TrEMBL record:
One of its GO terms (cellular component) is nucleus. PROSITE patterns: HTH_MYB (PS51294), MYB_LIKE (PS50090). It holds the Pfam family Myb_DNA-binding. The keyword Transport does not apply. This is Uncharacterized protein. Its main location: nucleus. Keywords: DNA-binding, Nucleus, Repeat, Transcription, Transcription regulation.
Length: 316
DNA sequence: AAGTACACCAACCGCATGAGC
DNA sequence: CGCTCATGCGGTTGGTGTACT
């Protein structure tokens, strides 16, 4: 026995929204709000749409201050950082990017960012790269430094490539750790309720954005480099195991990492586990941890410093 | 020029959860 | 305490436009 449908599918219109429908929905909500009942809303305004569909349309397109497309490097970085710490919880990630919707971020991740990160270039990107290389060849006789110079992405040229392997190293490191393009620390933007939600959801110590806290593999056990409560030696991940220092309750840590292991399926290579070992922490770190871009990679120990948020949240 | 492949993204679907009764 | 219903969320699909062969 299946679940009862949320609306009568036979009498409900599906597919793309027309401008008239958009206008109806938008003007009604702007004047009256949703009334706390999405199911009843389409009937009230004479739309032959499912309530869920109305809600989605409003949240993703009609709501004020929605931005589409044109993700910045900074946004890329935030998305990646959050994805690494909490997985595919797009609504939470979206909450950190004003004007972005979870659907937008999800689409962006699935269609572009993932490829960018794992080195699979889209044809568009390949073309951009080829075009650039042609131009460079024509004008400069293929001078290497010309390409390297533009790789920063700061000149109006398309970045030399969107291939993550190149770009990660090319991403300019912001002057202030964890600073967004508007000059706010990301941590400052985190709504308290979201923090609580993250904690509740099992993100636990991950509830703090990793940007300011993560430490590159060059760390070799110096306590002075470790922010308070707990650390995780991810070298054990390479052995298929997980160990934690005593400061973090083992169960919680296990759950957190179980969650992340599941959710991060496909990100294995970030930890040197994947078949494609071409991605190294030194390449990832500038993107994930701009403040720690120093990473000289080869020492093997990937150290995440986890801040116990529970005290901050008044949960202890 | 036509057919095919690919990229992108809007929208749908179904599950999980919480609120209300 | 259990049921029902509405909402929110993440995964997936389908349509459309564009590039390639």
């Amino acid at each position: 026995m299946g679940r009862a449908p949320c609306c009568d599918k036979a009498s409900v219109k599906k597919g793309p929204w027309s401008p008239e429908e958009d206008a109806k929905l938008k003007s009604y909500i702007e004047q009256n709000g949703t009334g706390g009942n999405w199911i009843a809303l389409p009937q009230k305004i004479g739309l032959k749409r499912c309530g869920k569909s109305c809600r989605l349309r409003w949240l993703n397109y009609l709501r004020p201050n929605i931005r589409h497309g044109g993700f910045s490097e900074e946004e890329d970085r935030i998305i990646l950082s959050l994805y690494i710490s909490i997985g595919s919880r797009w609504s939470i990630i979206a909450a950190q990017l004003p004007g972005r919707t979870d659907n937008d971020i999800k689409n962006y991740w699935n269609t572009r960012l993932k490829k960018k990160l794992f080195g699979k270039q889209s044809r568009k990107d390949q073309r951009q790269q080829q075009q650039f290389m042609r131009q460079a060849t024509e004008s400069n006789g293929m001078k290497q430094e010309a390409a390297a110079g533009d790789a920063t992405g700061s000149s109006g040229m398309p970045a030399v490539t969107y291939n993550w392997h190149h770009q990660a190293m090319a991403v300019p490191v912001p002057p202030v750790p964890g600073t967004t393009m508007e000059g706010h620390r990301i941590g400052d933007e985190v709504d308290e309720s979201i923090r609580k939600l993250l904690y509740k959801l099992g993100a636990g110590p991950f509830a703090t954005l990793p940007l300011p806290q993560c430490t590159p593999p060059m760390y070799e056990g110096s306590p002075s480099l470790v922010p308070p409560s707990c650390t995780v030696d991810t070298t054990s991940l390479n052995e298929g195991g997980m160990q934690a220092s005593s400061a973090l309750p083992a169960l919680e840590l296990d759950q957190s990492f179980h969650f992340n292991q599941v959710k991060l399926d496909g990100l294995d290579c970030l930890f040197g586990m994947g078949a494609d070992q071409s991605l190294r922490w030194s390449e990832v770190s500038p993107l994930v941890c701009p403040n720690n871009a120093v990473a000289s990679s080869s020492q093997g120990m990937q150290q995440y410093c986890l801040v116990d948020e529970s005290a901050n949240l008044g949960m202890k």
